[in-house]
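Tokens in:
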């Protein structure tokens, strides 16, 4: 089995997804858009993971590789590949599916509750009724045509969606580790200017290990759901 992930900046990586893939026996490859633009043929891979980043899906004029990435994702969706998008990744999937991506009413940065929507398993992934997740975003998206909303938060209506049986987009982060949280604080300090849904760096970094363990377990459940075929 082969997983391929799309990385947009050096400081946003797979986090807890990497050990899950290794334990599940995946061969993992990567396109790092800040270094190269080589992409595999969709038929050669089984799972696509689209990571986050500080840019917008609407920045094609200054970042032309975004158009290449969207075109490749469109091919993966047409080939019925399992696809997971996280933050920017979810926004890219939404854009490819025809939805609008635009600034959210407020930035959402830190650890805040997410509320799972009722769904009908086994075709839909069911999140817990309420859980804490790590957030770091300023944009949001409309629900793509044909997609089902899986989760919401007080600050952002569309926190997760599922399109078909094998495509999920998450606005929040379940892969975050203490290392990746510190990296975001170090590389994006301007995002932490005060706001109604922005935690100061000291607060969002003072997170107990059990909170990270909880989101990593949930990420493992989601990955198992997407790759069960």
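Residues out:
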């Amino acid at each position: 089995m082969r997983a391929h992930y799309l990385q947009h900046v050096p400081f946003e990586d797979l986090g807890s997804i990497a050990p899950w893939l290794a334990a599940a026996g995946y061969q993992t490859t990567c396109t790092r858009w800040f270094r190269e633009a080589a992409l595999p043929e969709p038929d050669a891979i089984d799972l696509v993971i689209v990571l986050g980043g500080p840019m917008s899906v609407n920045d094609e004029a200054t970042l032309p590789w975004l158009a290449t990435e969207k075109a490749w994702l469109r091919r993966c969706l047409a080939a019925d590949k399992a696809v997971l998008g996280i933050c920017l990744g979810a926004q890219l999937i939404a854009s490819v599916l025809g939805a609008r991506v635009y600034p959210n009413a407020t930035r959402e940065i830190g650890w805040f509750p997410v509320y799972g929507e009722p769904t009908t398993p086994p075709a839909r992934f069911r999140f817990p009724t309420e859980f804490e997740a790590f957030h770091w975003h300023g944009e949001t998206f409309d629900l793509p045509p044909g997609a089902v909303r899986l989760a919401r938060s007080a600050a952002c209506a569309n926190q997760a969606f599922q399109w078909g049986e094998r495509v999920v987009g998450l606005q929040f982060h379940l892969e975050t580790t203490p290392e990746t949280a510190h990296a975001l604080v170090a590389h994006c300090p301007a995002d932490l200017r005060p706001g109604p849904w922005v935690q100061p760096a000291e607060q969002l970094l003072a997170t107990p290990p059990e909170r990270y363990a909880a989101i990593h377990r949930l990420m493992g459940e989601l990955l198992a759901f997407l790759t069960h075929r």
